[in-house]
Design brief:
eight-stranded parallel beta barrel, TIM Barrel, alpha/beta, 272 residues
Length: 272
């Protein structure tokens, strides 16, 4: 063999090794019964829109009244209180600087959501309001991607809920905590095309986008942006392991129809 042929052979071998490594790394948890959560629609941050702000008790009441399940976001205040809020900062929803973790719960009570009378709700208040509705609980990583005290507090609170629930996060370490400590809870790895997210390192963006940390989180389902299903890691995971797939976030009827074409359940928002 000449030099070029040797180089081609080595390149093929390396590519084969990398492919096999990727197949190993994207492997989700061993198959469990997730049928209860399939073929369902979950209102993203409650049923909000118009005057109804996201992740408010008002939005959650509307979702329950309409008969939908709910997807919501949990964070922890400076003094360790669990509240429901999505963003890392308060400026979009409350026109205030800083994030949830920078304020005590008492301080947060002076803020309002989008110029309404709605305030940032306690996680315990939301669970009471949901009254047993199907729940997808996202653990936000604003308190730290490895904040296991946060995981413990979320778990303790979820034990008071009388409905069916599962947990998810972009952080494989937070979900991995549940895999290790409470494996009975159905859990999901959140992801999408993160390659343009400059808040993360390039290697982190690549690993998360292509689900290459599934060995850490051991997810029972993959919650992925329905717009990004062409990403290689997602496609390989779907083809090789056929996991339970949850789409986020379909906004409007056309988007929901598209999402249902590739996913088992859909997180949605109504337009208007």
């Amino acid at each position: 063999m000449n030099t070029l042929e040797w180089c081609l052979l080595i390149a093929i071998i390396v590519m084969d090794i990398l492919f096999l490594l990727a197949i190993i790394l994207i492997k989700p948890n061993k198959r469990r019964d997730t049928s209860y959560f399939k073929k369902k629609s979950y209102a993203h941050r409650g049923l909000h829109g118009g005057r109804i702000p996201e992740n408010s008790l008002w939005a959650f009441r509307e979702a329950v009244s309409a008969g939908f399940g709910v997807e919501l976001d949990v964070q922890m205040t400076r003094d360790g209180v669990l509240v429901v809020f999505h963003d890392d900062t308060l400026d979009r929803m409350c026109n205030v600087k800083g994030g949830i973790k920078d304020y005590s719960y008492e301080e947060l009570q002076s803020f309002r959501l989008k110029d309404t009378e709605e305030r940032i709700p306690l996680f315990s208040e939301v669970l009471k309001t949901l009254d047993g509705a199907d729940l997808i609980c996202e653990l936000k990583s604003a308190n730290g991607v490895r904040n296991y005290y946060f995981c413990e507090k979320v778990f303790e609170m979820l034990q008071t809920y009388k409905g069916e629930y599962c947990v998810e996060s972009f952080s494989p370490f937070l979900i991995g905590w549940f895999a290790k400590n409470h494996p009975e809870i159905i859990r999901g790895q959140l992801s999408c095309d993160l390659m343009h997210d400059r808040s993360l390192s390039l290697i982190t963006r690549f690993l998360l986008t292509h689900l290459l940390l599934n060995r850490v989180s051991k997810p029972d389902f993959i919650a992925y942006s329905y717009k990004d299903i062409n990403k290689l890691g997602f496609r390989l995971c779907k083809v090789f392991y056929s996991p339970f797939l949850v789409a986020w976030t379909a906004r409007g009827e056309e988007a929901e129809k598209e999402a249902w074409g590739s996913f088992d359940s859909v997180i949605f928002e109504k337009l208007g």
